[in-house]
Specification:
Blueprint: H1 2-15, E1 18-24, E2 37-42, E3 47-53, E4 60-69, E5 73-79, E6 84-90, E7 95-98, E8 106-113, H2 115-134
Antiparallel strand pairs: 1-2, 1-8, 2-3, 3-4, 4-5, 5-6, 6-7, 7-8
């Protein structure tokens, strides 16, 4: 009985440590997989995983960063020379801002998803990448 209680406690604390978001640029009918970003915040280790397609669309990139939390934002990619964060997610509106190019920041609208939807979205990116690879002539 004691072990069952321990397992239940362990599961309940680890089951809610990840916050998964699927982020897309504004669209009319269907989201563009080439622009999609998947974010997963692990609150136990303060690490965010950012998954998106590479510039040539042939690879799925998974970058991990430590993040900071404020009342209003999750933010990561701190530039000490500029005193600014490159990436932020507004906790109220779920707007993700990629300021990697400060002159033209990219804005995304995010939606909170569960682990199964997150894995499905990641698989969609991998499938899309594979289709692009298969279309190559040589």
């Amino acid at each position: 009985m004691k072990n069952l209680l321990f397992i239940t406690l362990l599961f309940s604390t680890t089951a809610f440590t990840n916050i998964n978001l699927i982020c897309d640029k504004p669209y009319y009918f269907f989201p563009d997989l080439e622009q999609r970003v998947l974010l997963s915040f692990d609150s136990t280790e303060n690490i965010v995983s950012r998954i998106n397609l590479s510039n040539n669309l042939m690879e799925v990139l998974d970058r991990k960063h430590t993040y900071a939390v404020t009342n209003e934002y999750y933010k990561w990619g701190y530039l000490q020379s500029e005193f600014v964060y490159l990436y932020t997610v507004n906790r109220s509106t779920l707007e993700y801002i990629n300021s990697y190019m400060p002159s033209s920041p990219e804005f995304y609208k995010c939606k909170k998803i569960d682990d199964i939807e997150y894995q499905d979205a990641k698989k969609d990116l991998e499938d899309y990448s594979q289709k692009v690879k298969d279309k190559r002539k040589i």
